[in-house]
C-alpha cells in the first residue's frame, strides 16, 4: 500500500498508518534486546561519556548516570503506550504527528534522524581510535596508536567502517541479528571483567589516586549548579540513547501472546539492564581513577574523550587488549545497528509523503529500506569528515550535541503520549493515567527544560570541549545548524508535496477518536 492508496479499513483512514514492505515476524524479544543493547553500545558509550560527565559533576557522576535514567524511564512508558496503540517504524515522527500535527511531528522525526547522524559519526571515530589501539597491542609498537590522530588516515578508516556497517544493515535484519549476538556477548563479558578489576584496583593501597565510594556519590542534589546538572544530564542521556531503536522495529518483531507487544517488552527489559551496567561502571571508574588532572585522573583533559583507552593497561595489565577489542566491536556493531533507526524513520516519513518518495523503496530481496539506509550513512560520513577538520575535540562536541538533540525529540515523543491519551487514559484507571499521561508528560517537560538550558549554556565558547567559532560555542552552532536545516527541509517539502502537511496521509487525532472509529468499523463487519 502506498501513502496515497486508500486504506481498506476505516481505522486506517483516520490514522493513515499502513505497512511499508518490511519483513514481518523476524525478531523476538531476545533478538530485539540484543539489537537495542548493541545500539546503546555500552563499551563505546562509556569510554566516550565518563570523562565529559566527570568534568561537569565530579564524584556525582554515578548520580548523574542514575538521574539521567529517570526521564528516560518516564519516556519509555510513553514509548510503550504509543507503540502498543500505534506500532509504526516512524515512531517519534508518526506519534508526534498524530498528537500535535504534521509540523511538530516532522521536526520530531528530524530530531531523531539528526541525533543518529551525530552518533554514527562519533561511533566511527571511536572505532578508528581503537582499531589502531588493537594493532598497537598486537605488534607491540605504541606509535601505531598515534596514527588515529592523522586527520587523513582517520577519515579514510572511518569511511571504511561506515561502508562495512552499512553493507551488513543493507542485507536486512537477519544478518544484523546474527552479527549483534556475537558482539554483544563479547563486550558484555569484557565490561563485567573491567568493572570488577576497577573495584579491586580501587581498593589497592598502592593506587594513591583512588577514591572510596560513598553514598553521596549517588546524590544528584550535591551537584554545584543547575548548569552543571543540566550539562551532566545531557551527557547521561547520551549513554541511554538508542534503546528506542527496538521500537522502530515494531513492524518487524514477532507478535506477542501477552498484553504488551514484543518490541515494548524488549525495550523495558533493555532499559533496566543498561542502567545497572552504567551506574556500576561510573562508580567503578571514579573510584579507580579519581578526579586528578594528570595521568589517569578523570579531570585530565588529555584522556576525557576516551577514558578507557587510558585506563585499560593500569586496570587490566596484559589483558588490556580484551577491552580494546570489546570497544572496537562495540563501536562497529553499534554503527551497524544504529543505522536501523534513521533508515526506518526516513522510510516512514517518505511513506507518508513527508520526504521524497525515493526514500521509501524497499530492497526486493533483503526487505531493507536500502535507499534510506545509504542516505543516512553518506550524510553521517560527510558530517564526520567535516567535523574532524573543524574540531580537534570532535568526539566530545558531537556527544554533547547528540545529548541536546535527544532531549529535543524524546521530549516531544513523551509529550505526544500525554496528549494523545489525555481523553482516554483517566477513564481506564490510575495506572493508565500514570503510565500514559502523567509520567511521560513529566519526563517530556524535564527533557525539554534540559534542552533549552543546555542550548543557552552552550553559547559560551568554554562550553563542552571549548571549541568555538567566532567566540560562539561549537556545540551551540551545531545544534542551531541542525535545527535550522530541519526547518528549511520541512518548508521545502511542504511546498513540493503539501499532502502530508494538509493531513491527507497521516492525520492528527487522539486515542478517543481512534476508539470511536474502531467501534464504528467493527459494527460494519
Describe the 3D structure.
By secondary structure, the chain is an all-alpha fold. It has a single domain, classed as Amino acid/polyamine transporter I (Up-down Bundle). The chain has 19 helices and two strands. It has a two-stranded antiparallel ribbon with strand order 1-2. Helix 4 packs across helix 16, helix 5 packs antiparallel against helix 6 and helix 14 packs across helix 15. The protein is globular and about 65 Å long.
Please give the share of residues in helix.
55-70%
> Order of helices and strands, N to C?
HHHHHHHHHHHHHHHHHEEHH
- Please work out how many helical segments DSSP would assign: 19
Q: How far apart lie the N and C ends?
A: 21 Å
Helix vs. strand class = mainly alpha
Q: Could you say which overall geometry the principal axes of the C-alpha atoms support?
A: globular
Mean pLDDT comes to 81
Q: Which CATH-level-2 architecture?
A: Up-down Bundle
Total DSSP E strands? 2
Rg, Cα atoms, Å: 22 Å
Beta-strand share of residues: under 5%
Physical arrangement of strands within the biggest beta sheet: 1-2
For the record, the CATH class is Mainly Alpha
> What oligomeric state do the depicted chains represent?
single chain
Count of structural domains: 1
State the major sheet: 2 strands, antiparallel
The CATH homologous superfamily is named: Amino acid/polyamine transporter I
- The low-confidence parts are 1-15, 517-525
What CATH calls the topology is Amino acid/polyamine transporter I
Amino acid at each position: 500500500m502506498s501513502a496515497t492508496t486508500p486504506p481498506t479499513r476505516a481505522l486506517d483512514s483516520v490514522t493513515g498508518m499502513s505497512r511499508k514492505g518490511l519483513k514481518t515476524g523476524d525478531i523476538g524479544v531476545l533478538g530485539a534486546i540484543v539489537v537495542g543493547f548493541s545500539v546503546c553500545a555500552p563499551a563505546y558509550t562509556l569510554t566516550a561519556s565518563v570523562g565529559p560527565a566527570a568534568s561537569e559533576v565530579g564524584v556525582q557522576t554515578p548520580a548523574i548516570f542514575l538521574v539521567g535514567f529517570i526521564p528516560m524511564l518516564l519516556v519509555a512508558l510513553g514509548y510503550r503506550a504509543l507503540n502498543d496503540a500505534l506500532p509504526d517504524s516512524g515512531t517519534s515522527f508518526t506519534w508526534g504527528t498524530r498528537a500535535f500535527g504534521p509540523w511538530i511531528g516532522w521536526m520530531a522525526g528530524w530530531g531523531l534522524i539528526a541525533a543518529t547522524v551525530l552518533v554514527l559519526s562519533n561511533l566511527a571515530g571511536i572505532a578508528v581510535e581503537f582499531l589502531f589501539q588493537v594493532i598497537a597491542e598486537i605488534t607491540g609498537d605504541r606509535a601505531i596508536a598515534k596514527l588515529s590522530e592523522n586527520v587523513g588516515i582517520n577519515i579514510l578508516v572511518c569511511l571504511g567502517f561506515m561502508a562495512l556497517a552499512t553493507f551488513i544493515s543493507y542485507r536486512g535484519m537477519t544478518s544484523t541479528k546474527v552479527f549483534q549476538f556475537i558482539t554483544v556477548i563479547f563486550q558484555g563479558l569484557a565490561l563485567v571483567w573491567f568493572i570488577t578489576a576497577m573495584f579491586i584496583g580501587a581498593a589497592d593501597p598502592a593506587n594513591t589516586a583512588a577514591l572510596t565510594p560513598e553514598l553521596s556519590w549517588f546524590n544528584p542534589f550535591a551537584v554545584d549548579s543547575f548548569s552543571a546538572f543540566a550539562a551532566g544530564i545531557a551527557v547521561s542521556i547520551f549513554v541511554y540513547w538508542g534503546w528506542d531503536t527496538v521500537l522502530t522495529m515494531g513492524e518487524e518483531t514477532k507478535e506477542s501472546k501477552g498484553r504488551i507487544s514484543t518490541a515494548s517488552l524488549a525495550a523495558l527489559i533493555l532499559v533496566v539492564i543498561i542502567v545497572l551496567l552504567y551506574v556500576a561502571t561510573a562508580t567503578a571508574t571514579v573510584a579507580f581513577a579519581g578526579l586528578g588532572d594528570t595521568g589517569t585522573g578523570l579531570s585530565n583533559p588529555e584522556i576525557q574523550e576516551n577514558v578507557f583507552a587510558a585506563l585499560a593497561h593500569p586496570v587490566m595489565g596484559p589483558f588490556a587488549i580484551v577491552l580494546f577489542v570489546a570497544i572496537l566491536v562495540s563501536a562497529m556493531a553499534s554503527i551497524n545497528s544504529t543505522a536501523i533507526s534513521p533508515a526506518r524513520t526516513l522510510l516512514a516519513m517518505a511513506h507518508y509523503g513527508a520526504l521524497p518518495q525515493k526514500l521509501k523503496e524497499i530492497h526486493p530481496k533483503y526487505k531493507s529500506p536500502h535507499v534510506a539506509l545509504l542516505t543516512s550513512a553518506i550524510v553521517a560520513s560527510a558530517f564526520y569528515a567535516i567535523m574532524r577538520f573543524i574540531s580537534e575535540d570532535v568526539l566530545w562536541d558531537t556527544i554533547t550535541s547528540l545529548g541536546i538533540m535527544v532531549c529535543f525529540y524524546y521530549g516531544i515523543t513523551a509529550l505526544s503520549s500525554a496528549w494523545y491519551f489525555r481523553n482516554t487514559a483517566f477513564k481506564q484507571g490510575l495506572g493508565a493515567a500514570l503510565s500514559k499521561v502523567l509520567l511521560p508528560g513529566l519526563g517530556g517537560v524535564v527533557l525539554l527544560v534540559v534542552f533549552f538550558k543546555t542550548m543557552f549554556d552552550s553559547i559560551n565558547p568554554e562550553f563542552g570541549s571549548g571549541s568555538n567559532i567566532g567566540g560562539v560555542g561549537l556545540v551551540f552552532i551545531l545544534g542551531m545548524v541542525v535545527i535550522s536545516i530541519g526547518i528549511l527541509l520541512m518548508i521545502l517539502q511542504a511546498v513540493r508535496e503539501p499532502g502530508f502537511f494538509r493531513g491527507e496521509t497521516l492525520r492528527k487525532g487522539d486515542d478517543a477518536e481512534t476508539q470511536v472509529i474502531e467501534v464504528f468499523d467493527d459494527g460494519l463487519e
